[in-house]
């Protein structure tokens, strides 16, 4: 039998879309990459630049166009197009313009790639994941957002740096909104096999209450800091999205805090938000009911209320 050729289509050739394509190409995630943007000169230039590096990465084919037909037959469509977050602007403030974009985009995508999973990266990602799922009518497992995969990576990096351990040995999640109402799941965090709240090792720091407050504040405000300095976040979200795509196309059953629609999750329903979930070729196979303390449980519900209010304001 012929080997299945995985195809990823990326909507939007801006800083985020182009970096996702670059990260995906370097990691050899798919054999076919398609990049779509309404700016033909921009998408042509990005694809040309990427193709010039094919000698140095796993073999793939890359194409780009201002015609959505370039996405035909995609296994996964990554949506990055939309208004860019400006300095001082919250993700929620982007909602109106980007929802209108989805109204026109989603029906066209379903025509050219009816079997694709839809991975939403455009902010506010939780609101737009809900909107895309509603507009598409697809099963909830097939429409999900990048959620707090990036936030959790920032969280683990800061914990690891404070404790002077390898970030790969820190297991901790940010849950809820990818935004200001997100929350850290301290109670389930571990370093190696040791619960973080019990962490103690000679020559390595412990976490005080002040340390935890500082670390979470840095996680929550990271995007604002990066936008002030260079105008956009792109490298880490590119790598985070590449990992999500690997989990899907390699059928990895990887646990990732992606954003998907929750119904009856710890009393939370009819909202998209991030909790640890098993991700594989089918999309979000299942969400995991991780142990939460009372503070975390209440924080998750407040975050859900924040997202739901934004969704209702937009008429969904």
- Spatially, the strands of the biggest sheet line up as 3-2-1-4-5-6
Percent helix range:
25-40%
Roughly how many Å apart are the termini? 45 Å
Shape: globular
Tally of distinct domains: 2
Total beta-strand segments: 16
Order of helices and strands: EHEHEEHEHEHEEEEEHHHEEEEEH
**Relevant CATH superfamily of the largest domain:** Lactate dehydrogenase/glycoside hydrolase, family 4, C-terminal
Oligomer: single chain
Q: Please state the second-level CATH architecture of the largest domain.
A: Alpha-Beta Complex
User: Structural class of the helix and strand makeup?
Assistant: alpha/beta
Number of helices: 9
| Average predicted confidence as pLDDT | 94
Could you name the ranges where pLDDT drops below 50 across 5 or more consecutive residues? none
């Amino acid at each position: 039998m012929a080997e299945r050729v995985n195809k990823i289509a990326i909507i939007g050739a801006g800083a985020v879309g182009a970096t996702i394509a670059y990260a995906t190409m370097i990691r050899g995630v798919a054999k076919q990459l398609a990049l779509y943007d309404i700016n033909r000169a921009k998408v042509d230039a990005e694809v040309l630049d990427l193709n010039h590096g094919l000698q140095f990465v796993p073999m793939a084919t890359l194409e780009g166009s201002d015609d959505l037909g370039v996405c035909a037959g995609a296994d996964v469509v990554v949506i990055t197009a939309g208004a860019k977050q400006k300095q001082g602007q919250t993700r929620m403030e982007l909602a109106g313009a980007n929802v209108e974009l989805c109204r026109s985009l989603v029906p066209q995508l379903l025509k050219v790639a009816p079997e694709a999973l839809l991975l939403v990266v455009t902010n506010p990602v939780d609101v737009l994941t809900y909107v895309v799922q509603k507009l598409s009518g697809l099963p909830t497992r097939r429409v999900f957002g990048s959620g707090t995969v990036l936030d959790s990576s920032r969280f683990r990096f800061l914990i690891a740096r404070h404790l002077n351990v390898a970030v790969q040995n820190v297991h901790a999640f940010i849950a809820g909104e990818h935004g200001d109402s997100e929350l850290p799941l301290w109670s389930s965090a571990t370093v190696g096999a040791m619960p973080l709240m019990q962490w103690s090792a000679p020559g390595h720091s412990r976490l005080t209450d002040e340390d935890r407050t500082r670390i979470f504040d840095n996680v929550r405000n990271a995007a604002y800091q990066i936008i002030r300095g260079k105008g956009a976040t792109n490298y880490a979200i590119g790598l985070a999205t590449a990992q999500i795509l690997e989990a899907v196309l390699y059928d990895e059953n990887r646990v990732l805090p992606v954003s998907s629609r929750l119904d009856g999750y710890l009393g939370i329903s009819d909202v998209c938000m991030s909790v640890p979930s098993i991700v594989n070729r089918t999309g979000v196979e299942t969400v995991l009911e991780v142990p939460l303390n009372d503070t975390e449980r209440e924080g998750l519900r407040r975050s859900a209320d924040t997202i739901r209010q934004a969704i209702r304001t937009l008429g969904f």
